[in-house]
Specification:
The chain has six helices and eleven strands.
């Protein structure tokens, strides 16, 4: 009686195991069917739906253009597949990430030797910038008014790339105007221009017409006003503005240089006074 009960329990366990295996097999069959439907479904390439068979034909016809990995494994024990399951999954994810960019995989890109060099690209960049900014002359007028100011804190920052800086007091009207414009020019005054320097440093001077009576013209690169009698002119585009306490430190890329009056003596400011350079 005990033996019969044990056999009956064993049969029940086997039946349950068989049911589990059948369910697993059914799940595998369903998965295989899903994969088959997916693999046999047309793929959209561009705007065209292409059947897998057509894609396979294209692969075979282009077989001489590709390297192939053999599916055959050497019977020796050291033989392992070229790709693991993780590798295949990573390749699939990469294909999905590429998306439409897969179209470029068969494109021949130009050799680096035929591309323009760095100097030519930089010159082209400067030409494009000049052509873009010349028509509107954004720096020349802000609010319909030419802005100018005497600065004594001006310095070179870098030769490559060419950078200069000046300091503008934050409460000065010129401060916001030059930051809004983004383009500006520096006119180097000569020793006879102290009157101009003092006028453009005068607080509260009228904005409208502040350059009246001072010969000037728009700079060719920025449109910012430059003085006709300047010894030298440096035209710039703002690249950075740093906090300097009650002043802002404005850094600019040099996009144009001119020397209308070479050899003249500059006006300098030292020790709270305007001075001139004497001697050679």
């Amino acid at each position: 009686m005990i033996v019969a009960a044990e056999r009956e329990a064993a049969v029940t366990r086997l039946d349950a195991r068989a049911a589990e295996l059948q369910a697993s097999i059914a799940a595998v069959d369903a998965r295989i069917a899903d994969l088959a439907r997916h693999q046999l479904s047309p793929l959209t390439i561009g705007e065209r739906a292409v059947a897998p068979g057509e894609l396979a034909r294209r692969v075979v016809e282009a077989s001489t253009r590709h390297g192939w990995l053999t599916d055959a494994l050497d019977p020796i024990s050291q033989a392992i597949p070229a790709f693991s399951v993780a590798d295949i999954a990573a390749l699939r994810d990469a294909r999905i990430a590429l998306g439409a960019d897969l179209a470029y995989l068969g494109v021949a890109f130009p050799d680096a030797a035929v591309l323009p060099d760095e100097a030519a690209l930089l010159a082209l960049h400067h030409d494009l910038v000049r052509d873009r900014i010349q028509p509107d002359h954004r720096a020349r007028q802000v609010g319909g008014v030419d802005h100018a100011m005497t600065v004594t804190a001006f310095a070179s920052v870098s030769l490559d790339p060419q950078r200069v800086l000046f300091c503008a007091e934050k409460v000065a009207r010129f401060h916001d105007a030059v930051l809004d414009a983004g383009l500006w020019a520096v006119s180097v005054l000569d020793e006879d221009s102290e009157k101009i320097a003092r006028w453009l440093a005068t607080r509260g001077r009228p904005l409208d017409g502040q350059l009246a009576g001072i010969a000037h013209h728009p700079g060719p690169q920025t449109g910012a006003p430059v003085l006709d009698e300047a010894l030298g002119v440096i035209e710039c585009r703002t690249t950075a503005v740093h906090d300097g306490g009650d002043h802002s430190i404005v850094v600019g890329e040099v996009i144009g240089v001119a020397e209308p009056r070479p050899g003249g003596r500059p006006l300098i400011h030292y020790g709270g006074r305007y001075r001139t350079v004497t001697g050679d």
